[in-house]
Amino acid sequence: MKEIKSKIDRLNSKILKIEDDNYKELFNEVSSVLDGLSAKVHEIMVNEAVLAENLKYLDDDISDIQEELFEEVSLEELDEIEEEFKEVTCKGCGKTIYIEASALKENKGIPCPYCDENII
Ligand SMILES: [Zn+2]
User: Fold this and answer.
1) What is the CA(85)–ligand 1 centre distance, in A?
2) Separation of 105 CA from ligand 1 center, angstroms?
3) Which in 35, 46, 67, 112 has the greatest CB count within 10 A?
């Protein structure tokens, strides 16, 4: 950007040396257009940098939200796992055992890990 600016400055100092008024006027017009364009480009570059910075913050925010969401999902999953287990008291030794609900339904004879007697 600085390079373009200094090129325009050099051009302007050359235009000052033009003796023909018509050419001088024409080149002054061209130079002012270039000046305007370079100012516009500079403005766009600054805006782009600001936007990039904002995007970075947005990206960080989204990452935080994603982390929170995944945490919640895994908590829900934990709840589901807990629901799948049933608390059963062994009629042989009176100890509490957690058994999968599906195993309780299908299997009539589950041995107690403490006393080896069938729990149900
Ligand atoms: Zn038992």
Assistant:
1) 17
2) 19
3) 112
Strands (E), 46-107: 85-89, 96-100
Distance from residue 110's CA to the centre of ligand 1 (Å): 10
Q: Tell me the CA–centroid distance for residue 94 and ligand 1, in Å.
A: 6
Structure tokens that stand for 94 in this block:
């009176």
Instruction: Answer whether 12's CB lies under 8 Å from 31's CB.
Output: yes
- Please give the chain's pLDDT, 120 residues, in tens: 788 889 989 999 999 999 999 999 999 999 999 999 999 999 999 999 999 999 999 999 998 888 887 776 677 777 776 678 888 898 889 999 888 888 877 767 888 989 988 876
Tell me which residue of 35, 33, 29 sits closest to 15, measured CA to CA: 29
Cα 118 to averaged position of ligand 1 atoms, centre (Å): 7
Q: How far is the CA of 46 from the centre of ligand 1 (A)?
A: 75
Q: Which two structure tokens, joined as six digits, stand for 23?
A: 């050419």
